[in-house]
What we know:
seven-stranded mixed sheet
Amino acid sequence: MGRYRHFIGGDWVSPVLGRWFETYDPSTGQVLASLPGGTAGDIDAAVSAARQAFSPWAAMDAVDRGRILARIGQKILRNVERLAKLESLDTGKPLAQADADVRVAARYFEFYAGAADKFGGTTIPVPGAFLDYTLREPLGVVGVIIPWNYPLQIGARAIAAPLAVGNTVVLKPAEEASLSIFELARLCQEEGVPPGVVNVVAGMGETAGMPLASHSGIHHLTFTGSLEVGRKVAQSAASNVVPVTLELGGKSPHVVFATADLDRAIPIILKSFLQNAGQTCSAGSRILVQQGLQAEVVGRLSDALSTVSVGPGIANPDLGPVISARQKARVEGYVALARERGAVIMEGISPHDERGYYLPPMILDGVRPENPVFHEEIFGPVASVTAFSSEAEALSLANATEYGLVAAVWTEDVGQAHRMARQIRSGQVFINSYGAGGGVEMPFGGYGHSGYGREKGMEALYHYTQVKNVAVYLGAKVG
Ligand code: NAD
């Protein structure tokens, strides 16, 4: 697919140090494209372009900003097939999942297009002769660092929301999968986003990500990625007093009570830990089952595993490869550790292609809470099963990790569902489901080490604006 360049100030620009690096197709291990190796000089240029573009973009009528975003959404929808193929090749994810990702990316632009002219301040009743009101003002330049698992979806949400309320963006995609982000930047420009409003600088975490996170010219940082890197970027941003949204990892539980409708639950649970080969921050990878139901749940899941097809993403199997050889080795390491600690492993069909980074779908039964696979994020097509005896124990197990991103409660008892929803420490709780459409409208983010701040929905717009209070003295009373 040739050689890409950074997108800075509306131009396609070679990296200042003249270095490129290669990106690979996880389904074959073959080189896919050459990406520009961004460094501090490229980040400086992008931040400077974004700062210059800020005032006119912020001053534009919100209706007009919204119209541009709406056109981008439409343009993405007209390019679904092409973008889905690219995303599938770059990440290894099954074509149908890539197709869904592209449609969700379009939804972010549609949603924030509609929100652009409906988001504002409030009036506040105060004592005395005052009119008091708030204004929601854009912050300035938003630095965005994203991971490789859902580049287009995560990139779209982290561009559309800040742009809607008048900010400009410098985005660094992940070195493993950047291609769809360059395409998105191209579509933004074609649909009327002025030069400098969206900038993309590719490169490695240390050499391109860190200069962005620690740049004194940005006004907000949105980081999506691992806990380990999230800590580092938040520390760097703190030294410039730059606020940060951290969207980190998860170890999300399915809590399956005795009354659960298993015909509905099993396929949804399966999809939740196999989607994108389990490389999803919100993967439902911890199955907690009420005693008495464990054998049936494990039996049904294990039967379902044997029907899961595995292959290159572009051939649209149920399960594609993981992103890299390193990721594959990491998952295998966790499975070996689980076995050593007494878990029983059930596997689906093993793929035959030795070139790509394939793993079979797996269930680890009888996982005790002290087993590392119970509380550490594996990021592979693997779920653990742990039994509980009472609602109190279910709650305690659900809350027994450092993370708190998503949870599901499966029960026919309405009171139990709401009791659990109130007490689970997690940014989202689903009752008898896991997800509700693409999730574009719903605030998303973590408790605990899953991060802080919220993306998606109207909630994200509060993070991409700052509030100013204006108090107007109305003068002495007349008469
Ligand atoms: P990662 O933290 O290794 O990398 C994420 C991004 O940070 C990449 O662009 C990378 O280049 C950059 N980076 C790496 N080191 C850096 C540094 N020192 N300074 C600045 N930037 C740096 O994560 P990953 O492996 O790409 O993604 C997997 C992780 O992301 C998982 O933990 C997953 O749960 C999490 N994730 C969270 C969400 C969410 O919305 N909560 C969504 C997707 C993924």
